[in-house]
Amino acid sequence: MKVEKISELTVNRLSVYLRCLNEMRARGDETVSSQALADRYNLNSAQIRKDLAYFGEFGVRGLGYNIDELRAHITKILGLDSPHRIGVVGAGNLGTALANYDGFSPQNFVVVGLFDSDPSKIGKRLPNGVAVSDIANFSLIAEQQKIDIAAIAVPARAAESVLDTILEAGVQAILNFAPLRLKGPPGVKIKHVDLLVSLEALSYFLAGPESAAPDAVLASEMDEAF
Amino acid sequence: MKVEKISELTVNRLSVYLRCLNEMRARGDETVSSQALADRYNLNSAQIRKDLAYFGEFGVRGLGYNIDELRAHITKILGLDSPHRIGVVGAGNLGTALANYDGFSPQNFVVVGLFDSDPSKIGKRLPNGVAVSDIANFSLIAEQQKIDIAAIAVPARAAESVLDTILEAGVQAILNFAPLRLKGPPGVKIKHVDLLVSLEALSYFLAGPESAAPDAVLASEMDEAF
DNA sequence: AATTGTGAATTCCTTCACAGCC
DNA sequence: GGCTGTGAAGGAATTCACAATT
Question: What structural domains does chain B harbor?
Answer without folding.
Answer: 3-77 (1.10.10.10), 84-193 (3.40.50.720)
